[in-house]
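A favour, since you know our C-alpha cells better than I do. Go ahead and set the record down below.
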Amino acid sequence: MNVTEKSYWLIGGVVTILLIASLIGWLLGLKVKTESSRAVVDNLNQRVRAWWTMVAIFVIAMLVGRNATLALFAITSFLALRE
C-alpha cells in the first residue's frame, strides 16, 4: 500500500466518521425538546460543520499538491501559535 492509497483510506475514514456524526446530530435535533438541550445539539452541529469545512480544505490542499499542503500547514501552524 503506497502513500497515496493510505491517504485515500484516511480521507475515507474521516469522511465516514463525519457522516456518522452529522447523522447523530440530525437525529438528536429531531429528538430534543427543551431549550437547553436544543442549545447543546446546535453547538454539536456547529462543531461538526466546522470539521466538514476543515476536512474539505485539507483534502483540496492534498489534491492540489505537496506545495499547497505544506503552505496550508505552515499557515495553520502560524495562526495556531498566535492564539
Q: What stands out?
A: The two ends are 38 Å apart (CA to CA).
